[in-house]
Amino acid sequence: MESEPDLYSSVALKAEAIEAELRRLGRWDSQPLPEVQFMDMGPFGSNTMVFEQWIQFVLLPRIHDIIVKRDEFPVKSQVATYAVRNFDGDPNAETLIDLLSGFDKLFNTNGVVSSIPPFQPQKPEDRDPVAVMTTLTNILPLFEGDALESQLQTFDNFLSVLDSSMRPAVSELLHQASLLTSSEVSRKRIQQAAGNVLRGERVSEPYNHEEAMKKYMEEFKRSYPDTPA
What CATH number is given to the structural domain containing 36? Predict the structure, then answer.
C-alpha cells in the first residue's frame, strides 16, 4: 500500500474521476435520497438503491470523510468485482468499471479486510468547506453545462456556512479553475461565478426541480427507449 500522504492524494483523485464519469453518463442524482433508503440497504446498497446511487451517496462520502479526518483506509476493496457483475452487458459502463478497478488496486493488499465506517449522512457544516472547495476547483475544468452547474451548487452550500471574509479566497480558486478550462463557454461561466462570489451573490443558477426532472426523463428515454412510459 502507498504511504499515507500519497494514498490520500491518489484516492481523492480517483474519487473525483469516478464522480466525473457518473456525471458524464447521466447517472448522478441531483437530489439526495430519502434517509429510509440507507436503512438495511444491504451490500453495495442492493436492497434499497441502484449501484450508481450507492457509489454517489455511500462510497464517495465515506471516502471523503476518511480523507478529511485522515483516518485509516480499508486494506481491501471489491467494488470493481461487484461492478463487473452489476454492469454485465452495459457497454457504457466500461470506463466506470476501469476506474473502480483502479480504485480497488489502491487498497488491495495481503492484509486483513477492514470494514468502512458506518455511513452517516453529511451536512455542509460537518465538512471542511475550504478543503472541499479546493478539491472541487481542481476538477471544475472537467465539467460543462448542467454538470458544471451542479458542481457550482456545492460552492453555494459551503459559502453559506463560511465567513464573508473567505469570499475573496474562494473567488480566486474559481478564477484559477477558469484558466485551466478548455471550453470557452465553461470558462466564462466559472469566471462569472468567481465574480458572483466577490459580490456576495449566488455562485450557481437557482435549482429548477421541474426542469431537472424533465431533462432526466428525456435522457432516460434516450438510454432506454423500450421501457414503457
Answer: 1.20.1440.40
Residue 71 lies in a domain: yes
Residue with cell string 479526518: 69
Assess whether pLDDT exceeds 60 at residue 20: yes
- List, for residues 47-82, the tens digit of each pLDDT value: 899 999 999 999 999 888 888 888 887 767 888 888
* Residue 173 grid coordinates: 480558486
pTM of this structure? 0.49
Q: What angle do CA 123, 25, 146 make, to 5 degrees?
A: 60
Amino acid found at 7: L
Exposed/middle/buried for 110, CB within 10 Å: 0-12, 13-18, 19+?
A: exposed
Q: Are residues 20 and 97 in the same domain?
A: yes
- Total number of domains in the chain: 2
C-alpha distances out from residue 217 to 27, 46, 60, 162, Å: 12, 23, 25, 35
Whether residues 20 and 91 share a domain: the answer is yes
Does residue 114 contact residue 75 with C-beta atoms inside 8 Å? yes
Domain that holds residue 145: 126-198
